[in-house]
Amino acid sequence: IKLGQALIESDAGRSDLARKANNHFGIKCNTDWEGKTFYKKDDDYNDQGEHIESCFRVYEDAEASFRGHSEFLLNPRKQFRYGQLYLVQARILARF
């Protein structure tokens, strides 16, 4: 599932986000992100309805992106949006 999502989200590693930010899952910055950032237009709009650049996380390499994706899914604050994936990921990681 993880590899499939990475392939789709990153256009098999060819997207700007994957090539320039090592972000293979399209994970955006949030208030607690302290790493480097990469900006590009995605799906965010300002209060006037203007299409604006979104902030995405930059990872050191692809491995860090995959690790970051797991951490993202395990974050209890994301459960409202990714509830089922959160539970599957937690079960898989509990085996190791």
- Low-pLDDT runs: none
Estimate what percentage of residues fall within beta strands: 15-25%
According to DSSP, the number of beta strands is: 2
Tell me the Rg in angstroms.
14 Å
Largest sheet geometry: 2 strands, antiparallel
Order of helices and strands: HHEEHH
Mean pLDDT, all residues: 87
What does this entry show, briefly?
This protein has 96 residues and is an alpha+beta fold. It has helices at 2-9, 16-21, 62-74, 79-94, and strands at 37-45, 51-57. The longest helix has 16 residues, at 79-94.
What does this structure look like?
With 96 residues, the chain is an alpha+beta fold. It is 45% helix and 17% strand. The chain has four helices and two strands. It has helices spanning 2-9, 16-21, 62-74, 79-94, and strands spanning 37-45, 51-57. A two-stranded antiparallel sheet has the order 1-2. β1 (37-45) and β2 (51-57) form a beta hairpin. The chain is globular and about 45 Å long. It starts with a helix and ends with a helix. 19% of the residues are buried.
